[in-house]
Every structure is written in structure tokens, then in C-alpha cells.
Amino acid sequence: MNHLLKKSLLPVIIIALLAFLALQLNNKPTAPDITFKTIDGKQISMHSLKNKIVLVNFWATDCPGCIKEMPQLINTYNQYHQKGFEVIAVAMPYDQISQIINYSKSQALPFPVTHDSNAEITSQFGKVSLTPTAFIYDKQGHLLQHTIGDLDFNALQQLLHKELSI
């Protein structure tokens, strides 16, 4: 009798494990519940960006890769912003606020720029320490992509076309 009970419970246990694994795979990380304060004093909460595809870009004025990709980031933002794409540029804690402001103005950065002066933002995003680092979130705030290093702008545009249904 004991052997029969074990045999009949095995499929139930396997189905329960498969259901648990499927749930875990669909349980994508979500954006931290954080409010960014831009260098021009505006407040932007991640919650207010629901229904948009959001790229949070960690960068620094002394980061060659960051500076190299900025023109493409500007172009991508300009091309997709009206369709529901938002970029938040987060300057690293060690960066000087005067350099961030100067760079933002000289390059006419069209997206919100914030300075993580007290390392609160980098901490909320998993202690970001390398630049450039990007997090891309879907319209519900679920993580679509996490990139350390240069962004692949062709792949980003394909992702935006898919997620924004263009």
C-alpha cells in the first residue's frame, strides 16, 4: 500500500514543481520604487513612468564608453520618445555636479539627468559600480534587459519596436 501511495504522489509532486518553476520564470525583477531628482530640480518617480519603456542609464563624465554612446542614446531617445520611450541618465556619485551640468548643457541632453550624489540610486539598482550600465524596463516596470558596457543600439531599436508595437 505504501509503495502505491508513493507511486501516485510522484506525478503530483512533479506537476507542482513544474508549476513552481514556471511561476519563477515569469516573476521578472521589477524597477525599484524610487524617485529621481533631476539636475534642474524636477522629481520623476519610476511609478509615474508606467506605460512607458524606461532605460535607466548609469554613466559618468569621465567614462569613455559613456561619452561614446551618448550621441546614439540621444538619437534613439529623439526617435522613440513620442512613442513611449523614456531615458533617465544617472550620473555616478563620484562625478562632479559642475561637470555633469556642463556636459548636459554642452551636449543638449534631451532626457532627464540626475546626479546620484549620495549613492542611493546606484544602491537601489543593485550597487551599480561600472559605467555604462543600463536597465531597460517594460511598460509594467518589469526588467527586460540589464547591460553592463556599451549598448547594442540595433538590438535596442528592435526591442523598442517590439515593446512599443511600432
Number of helices: 5
Radius of gyration: 21 Å
CATH-scheme architecture: 3-Layer(aba) Sandwich
CA(first)-CA(last) distance: 61 Å
Uncertain spans, ≥5 residues at pLDDT below 50?
none
Strand neighbour order, sheet with most strands = 5-4-3-6-7
Helix-strand topology string: HEEEHEHEHEEH
Q: What is the percentage of strand-forming residues?
A: 15-25%
Main sheet attributes: strand count, strand direction, barrel closure: 5 strands, mixed
Question: How would you characterize this protein structure?
Answer:
This protein is α/β, with parallel strands linked by helices. The chain has a single domain (29-163), classed as 3-Layer(aba) Sandwich (Glutaredoxin). Helix content is 41%, strand content 20%. It contains five helices and seven strands, in the order αβββαβαβαββα. It has helices at 2-26, 64-80, 97-106, 120-124, 153-163; strands at residues 35-37, 43-45, 53-59, 85-91, 113-115, 133-137, 143-148. The strands form two sheets. It has a five-stranded mixed sheet, with helices on one face. Helix 3 links the parallel strand 4 (85-91) and strand 5. The longest helix has 25 residues, at 2-26. The protein is globular, with a radius of gyration of 21 Å. The mean pLDDT is 89.
